[in-house]
Amino acid sequence: MILNITKLGEEVLRQKAEPVAEVNDEIRQLANDMLETMVDADGVGLAAPQIGKSIRMFVAMADDDVKRVFINPQIIKTSEEVADYEEGCLSIPQVYESITRPVRVTVQALNEKGRPFTLDADGLLARIIQHEYDHLDGILYIDRGDKAFAEKTEAQFKKRAERAAEKAREKEAKARKIAAKLAAKEAKKVK
C-alpha cells in the first residue's frame, strides 16, 4: 500500500522517534508498505517519521537494488574520511543541497524478521543510512548544511502549507454553500 509522505513543517519530522517494541506482523507490513512507497516516489530511503510514524525504523535501497529494512538502528562507527554529495528528501521535494558526511558507516539493527545484523556500508548506501538515521532523531538534511538555506527552505514550506490550508478552507466553504443551496431546493420541492 502506498502511504502518504509527510512534508517539511509537519511536527512528526522534528520529533525523536521511539524504539520499536516488537517486530511483529504489523511492523513487517509497515516495512513492506514503506518500501513500496519509497519505490513509488523514486526514493532511495524512507524513515517511519516520513510516513507519520514516530518509531525508529527506516528502509533503504541503494545502487545495488537490495531492499533493506533497519529497525531500531544504531550507527556504531563512522569513517574520518568525508565527502560532499547533493542530497534531497521525499519530505522536502525538489530541494537539494550539498551535504558533507562520512563516506563509511557501520550500523547495527534488526531486520524485518526481528533478527539482529551488523552492516558495513560505504558510498551511497552509507549516505542513505546516515540521512534516514537522522530522521529518527528529528534531524533533516537541511540542518546539516547552510543555515540560511535551511531557514529559507522552512519558510517556503510554511508558506506552501498555509496556502494549501487556505485552499482547503475555501473548498470546504464552497462545498457547504452548494450543499445549503441543494438543501433549499429540496425543501422547496417538498412544499
TrEMBL record:
Q: Does the keyword Membrane apply?
A: no
CDD domains recorded for this chain?
Answer: Pep_deformylase (cd00487)
Reaction equations catalysed: N-terminal N-formyl-L-methionyl-[peptide] + H2O = N-terminal L-methionyl-[peptide] + formate
What does the record note about the cofactor? Binds 1 Fe(2+) ion.
Please provide the record's keywords in A-Z order: Coiled coil, Hydrolase, Iron, Metal-binding, Protein biosynthesis
Enumerate the Gene Ontology biological process terms: translation
Gene3D superfamilies with a match to the protein in the record: Peptide deformylase
Cofactor (UniProt): Fe(2+)
Q: Where is the active site?
A: E132
Residues annotated to bind Fe cation: C89, H131, H135
The family line of this record is:
Belongs to the polypeptide deformylase family.
Question: What's the protein name?
Answer: Peptide deformylase
What species is this protein from? Treponema bryantii
Q: Which gene encodes it?
A: def
